[in-house]
Amino acid sequence: MAASATKQSLLMLASLLVLIGVATGSFYDNFDITWGAGRANIFETGQLLTCTLDKISGSGFQSKKEYLFGKIDMKIKLVAGNSAGTVTAYYLSSKGEKWDEIDFEFLGNVTGQPYVLHTNVFTGGIGNREMQFYLWFDPTADFHTYTVLWNPLNIIFLVDGIPIRVFKNNEANGVAYPKNQPMKIYSSLWEADDWATQGGKVKIDWTNAPFSASYKSFNDVDCCSRTSIWDWVTCNANSNSWMWTTLNANQLGQLKWVQDDYMIYNYCTDFKRFPQGLPTECNHN
Ligand SMILES: *[C@@H]1O[C@H](CO)[C@@H](O)[C@H](O)[C@H]1NC(C)=O
């Protein structure tokens, strides 16, 4: 009797742990909705989050934790239909005047025309490192995984596991690299029709409002993170993990494919913009 009761409670404990394990990606546990007065919401017991935008306001959320290096995945499904003039921003940022930032921004378009994925990296409050891409799929038809892999060697932007951009640690050549300031994750859906779509020529059509973007399958397992300035959550970053990864030969091939076929803007080839010479990191790839 006693033995079987013990067995039963062990089983219950085990299933409870499984439940907790499943819940680690929960939006309730990991994020705070920070603006939009009810326009961003969490559904499906924490597994789905949506941001909406209407004529009055957009909406957004931010992570409870701060990260200092990590591999962070988020599945996002973007505003469908006529999304011209809308921007869905998904980024990591530290605070203060000399902040660091790693950006994904999705610029909407009229129905049937391609989204632009705009990326940037800020170090010490300075960006000007834009690279833009079309995607090889319709990002509004389904969820796709957008990943930031940020370690001491490089920052890798990935889409469905395919690297699209690498920002290397070029401190040896005098380029600042984000490595000291913890960053939070932020995301928002907002209106930017003065610049977002076809250079600002196409405005938002409010008859399509509310616009909506959805998020699921957040994963920050093994990231180095903290919930307050005192409590670092241990990161499982051994020598074989994401912590010391750079692109392998296969991934370099994928990066080349994306950059050859889908990149539409690269600050490192914009000689007109930098008549005095390209930024240093452009010559050290
Ligand atoms: C929208 O579509 C036009 C026409 O295909 C294209 O030039 C532009 O890059 C697309 N994306 C944005 C965000 O303007």
From TrEMBL:
Subcellular location: Secreted, Cell wall; Secreted, Extracellular space, Apoplast
GO BP: any one term: cell wall organization
Source organism superkingdom: Eukaryota
Signal peptide: 1-25
EC number: 2.4.1.207
Modifications made to the protein after synthesis: Contains at least one intrachain disulfide bond essential for its enzymatic activity.
Cellular compartments per GO CC: apoplast
Keywords assigned: Apoplast, Cell wall, Cell wall biogenesis/degradation, Disulfide bond, Glycoprotein, Glycosidase, Hydrolase, Secreted, Signal, Transferase
InterPro entries, alphabetized: Beta-glucanase-like, Beta-glucanase/XTH, GH16_AS, XET_C, XTH
GO molecular function annotations of the record: hydrolase activity, hydrolyzing O-glycosyl compounds; xyloglucan:xyloglucosyl transferase activity
Start and end residues of each GH16 domain: 1-215
Family recorded in the similarity comment: Belongs to the glycosyl hydrolase 16 family.
Biological role stated in the UniProt entry: Catalyzes xyloglucan endohydrolysis (XEH) and/or endotransglycosylation (XET). Cleaves and religates xyloglucan polymers, an essential constituent of the primary cell wall, and thereby participates in cell wall construction of growing tissues.
Family matches, as PANTHER family: XYLOGLUCAN ENDOTRANSGLUCOSYLASE/HYDROLASE PROTEIN 8-RELATED
Name used for this protein in its record: Xyloglucan endotransglucosylase/hydrolase
The organism of origin for this protein: Arabidopsis suecica
Lineage: Eukaryota, Viridiplantae, Streptophyta, Embryophyta, Tracheophyta
